Amino acid sequence: MASLSATLSASELYEEALPAAREAVEIYRYLAASNPARFEPKLASALNNFGAALSDLLRTDEALAATAEAVELRRRLAASNPAAFDPELALALNNLSVDFSNLGRREEALAATAEAVAIYRRIANANPSAFGADLARALANMSADLLHARRTTAALDAAAEAVEIYRRLSGSARCVRLRRWTAGAHPWGHRRCLGTTPPITPAAAR
Length: 206
Known about the structure:
This protein is an all-alpha fold. Helix content is 80%, strand content 0%.
C-alpha cells in the first residue's frame, strides 16, 4: 500500500494516493503494536508518506499531525540506533518544517530545518557521497525559513553552501533530481521527501 501511494503521488493522482497511504499506516500500526522492534520503522515511514499525501491535498493540519508522529517515532529509534535511523529522522524533520511553513508557523519550521541540517551535516561529513545532496536540500529549505525570518545574511550563507554542495555533486542523478525539487516560484522553496516504506508482504502481516 505504501509503494502504491508513493507511485500515485508521483503521478499526481493525489486523491487516489491518500486511501492507500492511510491503509498502510493502519496496517503497520496494528503490526507495530505486537512487534514494535520490527514494525515501528515501517510505521514511521508510512506516517511520513501519509503526511505527504495529506499535504498534496492541502490538508495541512492533518499533514502536520502525521509528520509529527513520524518524527517522534524516528527520534526514539535514532536514540537507540543513530547509525541506522539518523538519516530517517533528518528526512522527517525536513518534512515537518514544510508542514509548519505551510501553516505559517515560521519559527517552528526554522527550528525543525535547523535540526535536520545539523543531523545531515554530521552524517554527510562521514559519508558525503551518500548524504551530501540531502544536506543541500535541507540547507535550501533552511534558507527559505531564514528569509521568512528576515535573517537575510544567514539565508544567503545557507543558500551559498547548498549551491556549493550541488556543484561538487554535479553529474549525479540524485543531485539533478533534488535540483528539480528545490525549483519553483522561490529559488529556495520548501520541498518534502517521501520515504521508502517497503511493500507489505503476507509474511510481514503474520
